Every structure is written in structure tokens, then in C-alpha cells.
């Protein structure tokens, strides 16, 4: 897969210049939009591979753009916003954003987030054409057809809930999944009263797949928001 086409949705000219200059230095292709209406039109016309999205646009809220795009596209959306409250991050992630970068940000951090997203795009495209029956991430292997999980060649004995959680994380590798999203997918509920149960199951799952739970290698916690499965090369 060649370098992706990135759409930059940003109305602040200084920030837009910083992002586009950074992309140019890395020889990324990009298009820009200064408001939500233009962003949606450009997304439909050009079918970009990745969207970098500011939430505070002059004509509509960025969360609404995410919701609109998600009705027809699964392209990765990285939010770049001055909104730093957990509630804002959770709302964007629940709407379908893949990552959240808070302003002010460093060029190095932006490029790192893009590399992670690009690797995820490459992995997904490599699995297209036929349903992947096996997921491999470092020493972790999930055989979906057998319903078995292996770590460094040894089979792990997971409960049904632990297996569902692990599969959900694996099928969204590199993406932050909010607690609400996980509860809905695994339990069919979004009740906050179920969050303690989720935390317990995540803790027991980690004990089985992490050699050192104090330094998790596979599943990263985003405190107050949710969890993300890291690809091993991203972790390293």
C-alpha cells in the first residue's frame, strides 16, 4: 500500500500550516477543508484514507462530522482538538473517532499517531479479500475458527467473556475502545453499573496474557475512557 491520502480539517490557519508542512516533509499526500460542510464534500469526492479532524469548526461540531462520516466510511479519524476534558474525548471516541490528540501537540507525536494508524491500515488491507481466521500479534495468537488463544505457543484457558473481550480488542487493534462501546458489544448494555464488571474481566484477562501486569504489553488502559490493544511493533 502506498502512502495514504490524508484530509486535514482545520479552520485555524496557523495550525493547518503546521500540520500540512509536517505532512509535506514526510511526503504524505493531503487535502484540506476549513469547515464541516467542505470536509464532508471532500471526503465523499476524494475518499481519503485518514482524516485529521478539529472539533471546533465554524459551521458544525466535529463530533457531528464523525457521526456523518461513520454512516458510510470506516476511514481512521484522528481528532486534533484543544478540548482536553475526558468527556470531550469520550464523546468523540464513542462517535467513531480512532484517536485523540490534544492541542498543543508536538510534530513528533502527530507523526507517531499517523505511523500507528498507517500500520493499522496496512494490516487491514493485508487481511482483505478473505476473512482472517487467525490473528497474530507478537506472541499472541487467536484462532477464530477454533475459538482458541495461544501465548508463545501455549494455549490459554479463557472464560467466554474474556475471549469476547480479547477478540473485540484484536479486531480493533490500535484503536481506543471506550468502556461504553465495549459494554455494548460484549454485554449488550451501556449501563455504568456494569463498568466495575468490565474492569474485573479486563484485569483477569491481563493476568493471562501479560507477563508483567504492571507493565502491560498488549492492552493499554486509557484512564477514565477505555482500552486499546497495541500492536507489538507500536509498543516496541
TrEMBL record:
**CDD domains, from UniProt?**
REC_OmpR_KdpE-like (cd17620), trans_reg_C (cd00383)
Whether Ribonucleoprotein counts among this entry's keywords is no
GO CC terms, sorted:
cytosol; protein-DNA complex
Q: Subcellular location, in the record's words?
A: Cytoplasm
Give residue ranges for domain OmpR/PhoB-type: 132-231
DNA-binding positions are: 132-231
Q: Which residues form the Response regulatory domain?
A: 5-118
Task: Give the SMART domains listed for this entry.
Answer: REC (SM00448), Trans_reg_C (SM00862)
- Carrying 4-aspartylphosphate, the residues are 54
Location, primary (coarse class) = cytoplasm
GO BP of this protein: positive regulation of DNA-templated transcription
MF GO annotations: cis-regulatory region sequence-specific DNA binding; identical protein binding; phosphorelay response regulator activity
InterPro entries to which the protein is assigned, alphabetical: CheY-like_superfamily, OmpR/PhoB-type_DNA-bd, Sig_transdc_resp-reg_receiver, WalR-like, WH-like_DNA-bd_sf
Q: Which UniProt keywords apply?
A: Cytoplasm, DNA-binding, Phosphoprotein, Transcription, Transcription regulation, Two-component regulatory system
Q: Which domain of life is it from?
A: Bacteria
Q: What does this protein do, in the record's words?
A: May play the central regulatory role in sporulation. It may be an element of the effector pathway responsible for the activation of sporulation genes in response to nutritional stress. Spo0A may act in concert with spo0H (a sigma factor) to control the expression of some genes that are critical to the sporulation process.
> What is this protein identified as?
Stage 0 sporulation protein A homolog
